[in-house]
Amino acid sequence: MNLTKEEEGILNGEEGEGVQKAMQLVVKLGDIFGAEELVEIQSAQASGVSYKSIKDEGLEWLEDFASLGAKTRVPTFMNPAGMDLEHWDYFGFPEDFAEKQLRIIEAFEEMDVIPSATCTPYLLGNIPQKGEHLAWAESSAVSFANSALGARTNREGGPSALAAGICGKTGKYGYHLDENRHATHKIDVEIEINKVADFGALGHKVGKIVEDGVPYFTGIKPNTDQLKALGAAMAASGAVALYHVEDVTPEAKEERPAGQYVETITFGEKDLKEEKEKLNTGEKPDCIMVGCPHSSIIEIEKIAKMVKGKNLKTKLWICTSRPMKELARTAGFVEAIENAGGDIVCDTCMVVAPIEQMGFKTVAVNSGKAAEYLPAHCKQKVVFDDIETLIKGALE
């Protein structure tokens, strides 16, 4: 790899052991993936924040790294933790889990990582421009940044994203290069879909088919929440980090002509029904959990209007970022939801929280990503449906 004098100096330890260790990791990965040089990034987003995900080994690694004096050089955001960081005791998160989780947060903060604890940093003002280079790690955030915004990032691991944030650079390979951003598969959607759950089901099916390919969709006009649901599901069932939607996403008009795809796939009513049936493995939910990826203010408002003045007979968790909850509080949505018996849970989501230790066995979701991960990661049965149906069934 061709390094500048500044980069060589960092690699040789001229700016301290912490940033040297980070540069070693960035350069090593660049070499592995055939990068010819490094590229400056505008922001990073580190995963591996939940104690459930990284356990004691990850905690010790973070604390050791922080002790070397490494500090981030570009805005570096933090993925969701394994619990609500302020009200973990109210929600019943285990005390021993909380102690380790808070140490993880402290280690990140020592390295000047922004304690955002969200998988949707783009909803909190970190909105990259088209063509900007990033080092993001959370799969749904990577998909949204690449696809909906036209920024450029590979699906980094937690340590590599953190290291890139500390160096301010990452290897120029993969989706940082023009030639790797063209579609490999064409997806013709032949039915009208307008619910987040339906986009999750579509993404779940397509991800399994294209794996780490780049799908190009026709026949859909998704909004922001639907885009994040679509991308999150494809990243979970497959390894999709970039997709295009005709007349919607910023790079779609730059796509190749028809006939140059590996495969053309159609998605119709039968496919939607079959996919939703596959995702349903349970019947009576212990709790409805939404916000995977984290709920937007529009999604919170929608639920607040559905439950206002009513009573829920089933627990309801709406997972979101802390700033989003405060906005919802100002708008009166938190009061409406809590009066109905629901809760807005910050900083975490059902996938990275230890819900299997908290008595939950069956969870209702409208997220294709959550439906994919919950059985294996959290030992949960899943009720999968659109949010209107789930809430209606939970009201007294």
Structure description:
- The protein has 396 residues and is an alpha/beta fold.
- The chain has three domains: 5-178, Aconitase, domain 3, CATH 3.30.499; 182-277, Aconitase, Domain 2 (3-Layer(aba) Sandwich); 280-394, 2-Layer Sandwich (Aconitase, domain 3).
- It has helices at 5-11, 17-32, 51-67, 88-91, 95-110, 139-147, 158-167, 196-210, 224-237, 269-279, 297-307, 322-330, 333-339, 368-378, 387-394; strands at 38-40, 43-46, 76-78, 134-136, 169-171, 185-189, 215-218, 244-245, 263-267, 287-290, 315-320, 343-346, 362-365, 381-384.
- Helix 6 crosses helix 9, helix 8 packs parallel to helix 9 and helix 9 (224-237) runs parallel beside helix 14.
- The longest helix is centred in the N-terminal third of the chain and has 17 residues, at 51-67.
- The radius of gyration is 21 Å and the shape is globular.
- The model has no long low-confidence stretch (mean pLDDT 96).
- N-to-C series of helices and strands: HHEEHEHHEHHEEHEHEEHEHEHHEEHEH
Number of helices: 15
Gyration radius over CA? 21 Å
Spatial gap, N to C terminus = 63 Å
Just give the CATH class of the largest domain. Answer: Alpha Beta
The number of domains: 3
As for the CATH topology of the largest domain, it is Aconitase, domain 3
The total beta strand count reads: 14
> In percent, how much strand structure appears in the residues?
5-15%
Strand line-up across the major sheet: 12-11-10-13-14
| Poorly predicted ranges | none
* Class of secondary structure makeup: alpha/beta
CATH architecture of the largest domain: 2-Layer Sandwich
Rough shape? globular
Q: Name the average pLDDT.
A: 96
